[in-house]
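Q: I'm building a small set of examples for a reading group on sequence design. Run inverse folding on the following structure and report the sequence directly after it, with nothing in between.
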């Protein structure tokens, strides 16, 4: 069975549900749709992006209160605003606009936080908005605002649960479709790199701060749309559904269903809503007294779930369903991406001048200088702890030198940041492999082409980026084949051996079309024939005019490959020259090589 067929079955069941189910269960399905929209935003925000938010219920309240106030109190508004309440469809747009502004302001304050401070920040503004709903004059206090008009759709009043059902689920499915499209795109790969891969993503040209803001705004807008639907379904709002407890329940829904999976939002919202209803009905009868006993059950259930199925229920369901997934199609006819011209062979393309990096009293790099020329392979060697990887971080913008300067392609780039330097034409691999293990080899390599695309969030969500996406994937596939990993193109990157993962990183770096390539221990973990293939690849890149700076401990590999060598020890340069000169240098023999012939 294919995923398309399963989706068609799901849509058919949704279509007939209001026709065959009692009104009570239709109402439950309406709530599941509303809750799933908010949980879907949390899947994007928390499960994919790694940003925990307890305040999504407040954004639901923004959408609900905006339409409630505009449609019920239009006569009390200034004349220039009264027209905004003429139709619920206008109030939807107004609510989304207000939510966008508020979310952007809150995001500017909150998203700069990290660790446990971020969720604490969302709790703070979530509580602030909740109390504002109950305290501001004109919001109806805790009594609420009644008499909210029904939504009309082409003259049909959606005044019953059965009628508004289709609108709620149309919104939900549209949100699901656009979110899935977003994740399956250039922007989506950037978003998926936020959780555990921010340094790598910045080094590939991804603006991770922008990506964090994007998912925060998308999650807020989906919650606001859910609040608009809720207000017109209930025709009454008060602050109670928009407090911190509901924010926690939304997060529970996302985690139960599978915080990293868009379909998990529906599973989590459905299971949570049904269980809560059944527990509220049965536990008082069973225990002989009333109370919020369902919260106790959910608390223990959540702990058990986090122990037994941390990824949520959707991955378990997906294993049981016999779904055949076709591998990602590569359009071999897609036009090639534009390539930057290589610098003139022999020109200095990267220059480090007296770089010093101190961490408190520790001096990791001290007065380090070197030049890298177009069309050459330069090796940076030295014993473990010599400061080579730290020096790489200074060159690539991952870190900023305490003093000294870095000049790339004639421009001072000291402290400019990895993303900006990557856009100029520098790419790198890492000493400790930085891949997204659950993403395919193809998707990992395509992250390297991020800076070569330009389609934004709306194009991605509405599938207007398909031609560019075909080019990016074709480019990624080309470099995967080039490094010899074509047989693993659709495998999960985490399933590869360490040596293959290092080669994958090289393919990702090449996909960015660099003029300078920094390779941190590229031969580590490779077998003899794999090293020979890597050496051949690097020689071809050199012949094309690319400058390559590599850190490596395999002296046999280095001596037979590179044009020049720089040797570091205790953060300082102790030698520089041709391989034959370095082989005989007394300082190098004493510090590192130990008499290698």
């Amino acid at each position: 069975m294919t995923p398309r067929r399963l989706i068609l079955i799901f849509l058919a069941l949704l279509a007939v549900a209001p026709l065959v189910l009692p009104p009570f269960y239709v109402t439950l399905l309406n709530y599941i749709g509303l809750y799933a929209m908010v949980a879907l935003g949390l899947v994007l925000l928390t499960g994919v992006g790694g940003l925990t938010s307890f305040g999504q219920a407040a954004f639901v309240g923004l959408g609900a209160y905006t339409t409630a106030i505009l449609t019920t109190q239009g006569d009390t508004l200034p004349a220039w605003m009264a027209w905004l309440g003429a139709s619920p469809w206008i109030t939807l747009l107004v609510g989304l606009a207000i939510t966008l502004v508020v979310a952007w302001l809150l995001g500017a304050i909150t998203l700069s936080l990290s660790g446990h401070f971020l969720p604490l920040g969302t709790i703070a503004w979530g509580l602030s908005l909740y109390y504002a709903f109950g305290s501001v004059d004109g919001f109806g206090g805790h009594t609420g605002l009644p008499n909210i008009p029904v939504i009309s759709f082409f003259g049909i009043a959606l005044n019953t649960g059965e009628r508004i059902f289709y609108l709620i689920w149309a919104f939900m499915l549209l949100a699901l479709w656009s979110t899935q499209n977003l994740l399956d795109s250039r922007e989506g790969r950037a978003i998926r790199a936020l959780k555990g891969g921010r340094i790598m993503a910045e080094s590939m040209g991804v603006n991770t701060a922008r990506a964090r803001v994007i998912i925060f705004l998308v999650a807020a807008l989906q919650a606001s749309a859910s609040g608009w639907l809720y207000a017109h379904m209930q025709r009454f709002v008060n602050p109670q559904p928009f407090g911190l407890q509901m924010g926690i329940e939304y997060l529970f829904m996302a985690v139960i269903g599978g915080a990293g999976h868009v379909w998990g939002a529906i599973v989590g919202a459905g299971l949570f809503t049904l269980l809560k209803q059944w527990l509220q009905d049965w536990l008082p009868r069973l225990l002989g007294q009333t109370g919020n006993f369902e919260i106790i059950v959910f608390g223990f259930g959540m702990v058990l779930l986090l122990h037994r199925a941390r990824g949520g229920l959707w991955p378990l369901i997906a294993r049981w369903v016999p779904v055949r997934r076709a591998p990602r199609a590569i359009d071999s006819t897609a036009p090639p991406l534009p390539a930057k011209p290589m610098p003139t062979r022999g020109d200095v393309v990267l220059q480090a001048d007296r770089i010093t990096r101190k961490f408190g009293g520790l001096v990791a790099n001290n007065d380090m200088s070197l030049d890298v020329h177009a069309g050459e392979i330069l090796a940076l060697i030295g014993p473990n702890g010599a400061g080579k990887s730290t020096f790489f971080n200074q060159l690539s913008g991952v870190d900023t030198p305490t003093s000294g300067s870095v000049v790339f392609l004639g421009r001072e780039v000291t402290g400019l940041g990895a993303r900006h330097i990557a856009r100029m034409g520098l790419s790198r691999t890492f000493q400790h492999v930085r891949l997204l293990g659950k993403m395919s080899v193809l998707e990992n390599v395509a992250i390297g082409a991020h800076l070569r695309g330009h389609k934004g969030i709306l194009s991605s969500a509405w599938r207007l980026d398909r031609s560019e996406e075909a080019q990016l994937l074709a480019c990624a596939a080309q470099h995967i084949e080039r490094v010899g990993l074509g047989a693993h193109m659709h495998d999960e990157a985490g399933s590869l051996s360490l040596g293959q993962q290092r080669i994958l990183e090289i393919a990702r770096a090449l996909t960015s079309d660099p003029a300078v390539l920094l390779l941190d221990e590229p031969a580590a973990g490779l077998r003899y024939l794999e090293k020979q293939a890597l050496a051949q690849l690097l020689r071809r890149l050199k012949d094309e005019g690319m400058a390559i700076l590599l850190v490596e401990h395999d002296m046999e590999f280095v001596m037979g490959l590179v044009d020049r060598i720089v040797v570091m020890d205790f953060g300082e340069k102790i030698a520089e020259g041709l391989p034959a000169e370095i082989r005989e240098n007394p300082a190098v023999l004493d510090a590192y090589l130990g008499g290698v012939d």
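The radius of gyration is 29 Å.
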